[in-house]
Amino acid sequence: MEERYQLNKELAQMLKGGVIMDVTTPEQAVIAEEAGACAVMALERIPADIRAAGGVSRMSDPAMIRSIQEAVSIPVMAKCRIGHFAEAQILEAIEIDYIDESEVLSPADDVYHVDKRKFKVPFVCGARDLGEALRRIAEGASMIRTKGEPGTGDIVQAVRHMRKMNSQIRHAVSLSEDELYEEAKRLEVPYELLKQVHDNGRLPVVNFAAGGVATPADAALMMQLGAEGVFVGSGIFKSGDPVKRASAIVQAVTNYNDAKLLAELSAGLGEAMVGINENEIKLIMEERGK
Amino acid sequence: MRIGVLAVQGAFAEHINKLRQLGIEGFEIRKAEDIKEKFDGLILPGGESTSMRKLLNELGLLEPLKAMIKGGMPVFGTCAGMILLAKEISGGGTPCFGTLDITVKRNAYGRQLGSFRCVEKFADREIEMPFIRAPYAVNADENVTVLAEHDNKIVAVRQGSQLAAAFHPELTEDTAVYEYFLEMIGKV
Lengths: 290, 188
Description:
The complex is a heterodimer. Chain A is an alpha/beta fold. Chain A contains 13 helices and 8 strands. An 8-stranded parallel sheet of chain A has the order 7-6-5-4-3-2-1-8, sandwiched between helices. Chain B has helices spanning 12-21, 49-58, 62-70, 80-85, 176-187; strands at residues 2-6, 25-29, 41-44, 75-78, 86-89, 100-105, 116-122, 125-131, 136-140, 145-150, 153-159, 162-165.
């Protein structure tokens, strides 16, 4: 199982510097692949529509996920509800490349997350801070992403989560070894994982940005803040010109430091998704699964 | 010696770290400007080949790098990098540089559940090989030397100044494949 976990962390390494796009149909998956996505997330409804529709939101129909697996050659991810290990088992049975145990769906368990070490397929989980990230890694996640606030087109939460995580990592690095025990207790995380953060100055797994990315500038912002790649959910297929926007965001992630190129990429993209501000939303998805 | 590592997407940082361990300067190639200064070798890392091909095109890197490879610039491709070099892609798919006379099969071992590690001989040395959603070569022309096989499938080849591996030496402690590549550069 150790070797499997290593291979799963390494698949995340291959995704670095890339954009993972939410898609709801095989046609969208093909558009995403042609635009240069390094993976797609197959789901029935993108977060903005989940938010609009309300009600309980669950794992997508395996037939729909399969149709997307058949349409593209890049890795295909899919979401299960927090704590819903049976949904995860089903996704493993259809040989999904990555499971996102996601706060975007309605949580199935308000205490426990999925014991991800029991699975051969890799998991990515959302986190708002170092504590959440290391708890998910302890449970077996081989990739982390910021939670952000999905389906809003508002980047503020993703920025908050990335900055907090980075600041906590810097703090962990600054601590002396004997202080790490207390910090592990305070963060409610295993000492060994915190020690790895202390020694390497980074999370033990790849860390992407997610939640609210809507423009090439948003993607560049998250990359400059230290994200190793970007998830784009509603931002692409809720916009006026998905093909152009998808391709621009992919290029923005590669050359996130080149403001001149970013200016070109940001020009004439058509309408961005209509966003919702923090104080306008009732359902706060980031609070799910701590 | 300076080695350029294609850094448009994928596991390029791992290659640069590996080069640093060997005392060699690796630099990132993200756009056309980055290849203006002279360099001695090129590494094409693992990642998603479709994504890299798209970016190579859009960033104006495809043609100049292809000309360099054709002109004898030593190049080393791992996993997606091997696909970028291949002349033909089994089952269709657009070749990228198309300078290496092999036919490559993408995702040849299936999805992530098919990823594995093994120990095999690479040019007479036993090394660890991680395969991650890896390709293999379904055939290689006569002018191509096979350097490694796994389960009778071709997983590493050399043709003149081009070296390609379906696995990821950048994810192991062993440096045999890098030493082999550096020797190739030394002889140019």
